[in-house]
Fold this protein.
Amino acid sequence: MRIDYAIEHPVALHAAFDVEGFTVLLGASGEGKSMLLRAIAGLIPAKGEPFGGMPAQDRAVGYLPQGYALFPHLNAWQNVAFALRGPQRREHASQLLERVHMADLAERYPSTLSGGQQQRVALARALARRPQLLLLDEPTSALDPVTRDDVIAELIAEVHDFGIPALAVSHDPHLAAVADRLVLMHARRIIQIGTPESVYANPVSGAAARLLGYRNVHRGYIEGTASAPRLMWPDGGMSFPINSHAAIGAQVDWMIDPAAIRIVDARDTLSDVIPASTEVRHVNGRITQLGLRCGLGRLWVTVPEGIQLPESLALHLSPEAIRCWTRDI
Amino acid sequence: MNTAAHHSRLPAAVSTLTLLLLIAPFVGLALVTHWLDFHFAEGDGSAIAVSLGYSLLALLLIIALGTPLAWWLARHPMRGKWLIDALLLLALLTPPLAMGLLLASMYGPYGPAGHLLERAGLILTNSAPAFVMAQFYSALPYYVIAARAAFEGVPRELEQIALTLGHSPWRSFVHVSLPLARLGLAAAVALAWVRALGEFGVVLIVAYYPQGIPVKLWVNLQNIGLNAVYPLLWIFFLVAMPLPLILGLATRRQRLI
């Protein structure tokens, strides 16, 4: 489904993209993502398609706001039945609850349900309206981090099962990673659209890389000569050689894979290494990353298993692993 | 003795004192009432009927006209809203006697509105409509302010969700705003009822007749004496209390959130 919306108030925003399957619009907080969903749902004035000009109650959208907004005075099945009419409403609501695996909790009130359970009731309620489009505002924000991945998996399976295109807006890279289609928004503009594979493989800018949750994205500029360009990293107080073709003097965002950084002993007098000190260890299963302080900046480094760390650390950044994007100022 | 128990003593002591102060006049009433010679003055029965009947009518009018205003004030931000706040405060602040005089000068036989209404057959002095009007004016601002606070407590998002689920704004109001605001609205209704029923100053000026209970208490005191006041006062409590009491109990019993 093609979305094309322009909002003027409270902030100007224009967004046009296709929603296919489970589409995630990824953007930082304050980009107006929630506003876009509210505009599509008809809750704030805006121009665009689909549903342009229709009152909210006539738009065939299922809207799940942040926190899900279940009616506190109604129990689970009554919440779902809210969108239904006629003598069959209870039965129909029960069927929908069954499809989201919540039939056992049909009599429970929202305040007694977990975040994931509330989300499923809200999903069933939104689906009861027979929407052509599902709108999900930060669907992972109210979830318990321990069960989050499972809840998201369930949510996406249900969305696929019902066969209704869904647009989720989020700033959570975890959610972006499991989307069918990914749309990146920065500075109130759509900056990149594609499958998660293609977008993660080739972020179009430093801002895109930051949104995607990449570590080690920093600012710098190019100095040196055209034949021997160097990347100056002001926060780290260092420059090092690169293989980029960026113009000398250009302001850039640059990024390096934590696995491409080599830890060396600061006492070995090597050139172009950055002295560093350990700030934090991040153990994630079998992979350990170190957060290392370099001047005013920080670099994350993946530590190979079983390596003995030298007493005083320094880092070597391999030139071919550094990616640079020219910044538009 | 632990400190928690110690700390809870002071509030308990102050609460007891406050309750004693509250109950004192009613203990006095119980003591001075001539229980062996408990009888009503002539006209007390009709005063009860007048008070109950017309207060109920005034209450219905207040709910019908005050609820939309309260909702509108709670939901529609606009410039110059402080003027409406000031207007409501003005109505609250006006001493009842003065409000009676203002109503008489507007709706009385020589008032600009009264003159026109009288031609249409509506007499707003010493009449049933005048009685209802007096109660309406004295209780309406209380109702509007309390009901507005009740509506402001309803998350706007829930009303909007109701729209996205295909409900019209009216159905969303009935099925979401009203039930979620019901605690506060019940309190507002109870407050308006108590205010309307007990109103004396405004009624004295514009609707001395038909005599409701507050005016009849005054008349009994003037014509007969204190002994004619107490029995009517007991009945007043008896008939005025059930509505606010039941409203309070019923809404508090239904658990919310």
